[in-house]
Amino acid sequence: MFHTQGRAVSRIAAVMLASGLMAGGAAATAVADNAGSTGGVTATVEPTLLSGKIDIDGIGERQGGLFTMTTSDGKTIRTYCIDFGHGIDIKSKAQYRESEWASSPLGAKGREDDAAKILWILENSYPKQTDLKALAAKAGISKPGDFTDEDAAAGTQAAIWNYSDHMKAVPQDPEAKQLRDYLVGEANVGIKTIPTASLSLSPDALTGLSGTKVGPFKLNSSADQVKFALGDDSSGGKVKLTDKDGKAIGASLNGPIAKDTPLYVDVPAGTPAGSVSVTASVTTAVPTGRVFLSEGYTEKEHQQTMILAGSDQTTVPVKVKAAWQPKGALPSATAQVSCADNAVKVTVTNNGDQEGSIEVKPGKTVTVQPGKSETVLVPVAEDAAYDITVTGPNKFVKEFKGVLDCKVTTSSTPPTTPSPSPSGPSLATTGGGSGTGIMAGIAGALVVAGAGAVYALRRRGRHARTSA
């Protein structure tokens, strides 16, 4: 089992694909879809932090270190902050979901080297490297006997901030500082490989014509085996799950899983309008370096982005739906935050046999021909909440909501930070002294600036920003 020692708190605005479902001429209306949910681990932040004091150049002393989250099946994952400019509300028990680099600040243009350096740090430091004696030897720490878990966490977080937020962050503890210096030094050659999703099956819904294969649903997974089950089947067992060549897929696929493996629901000709659900599941450790985004839909709910440092084996389920009918325009819509464009990318598809007029609001109206897709890029201001509604034929409606958080925010002026108050929520620096594990949030009532949420007070109006 993954090694756990301090508990942590983290949040991230979830940014995954989503799609609308229309069956039998009636649309299913999704509400508050954080650019959707197509799999990945979900987790809740815990109110503790394994940390130490870190001096931020031009800002002052802050706490930084390793956070803990609990997955929906009760397992543990550990994360570091890659978003110094936003905070964490411990009291809220914020929910997070595994997501792509493209939906985080690491997905912005020109951030490839930063992401590679951070991934190298995660693979070569704590908690991936649990042998502190060996880690101290690699880092050239002069007093390895004084090197603690808290020092390792603080040194690692400081090194990550060097690349995630482009700030000079130096731990006060000498052993933690020596680790930080090693992690940002010549040894760090970067790792260019983008971590694979624990499990992603997207989009969450598609439509098609009877007598065709509804799809493709794109499968990604780092697991050795993906299990499948069909349910809620209105066809009476006539439909089947297949690959791109029409070969039936049984109870599982064994790895390795090729990127964007296409899956289809084969619907026999003459099948009356209906739908079927497809459930996929894996049991796996989440790959190091996966981004975690909070699932808040508003600026107030939005909290700092995290990156995975370690994971227990956890069970990850995802459920999608395929619908069909004999004829007509059959729209679906997906959305994904694109930090490279500082926008939400909305893709509308028509799997029917008639053209359809589909409106993306705000955005534009597009006419989509049968079997074709159109993409609408909806610009969103940094740190701003977005609310995008897609409407089309047969009362089709799909809504995407979230907060766009793509850019590194730095400042030479230290923001004001209220002192912690055990009687009610407040903004506070994350806790932890030299060589000391700190409980972030007294009586669970503090709003911790987890990894530097000191910027939380100055976010533009509480911040103007969102397979697996």
UniProtKB/TrEMBL annotation:
The chain crosses the membrane at residues 437-457. InterPro entries: PLipase_C_C, Thioester_dom, TQXA_dom. Residues 409-432 are annotated as: Disordered. Residues 78-188 form the Thioester domain. Keywords: Membrane, Signal, Transmembrane, Transmembrane helix. Residues 1-28 form the signal peptide. Residues 336-402 form the Bacterial phospholipase C C-terminal domain. The keyword Repeat does not apply. Pfam families: PLipase_C_C (PF05506), TED (PF08341). Gene3D superfamilies: 1.10.150.480. It comes from the Bacteria. This is TQXA domain-containing protein.
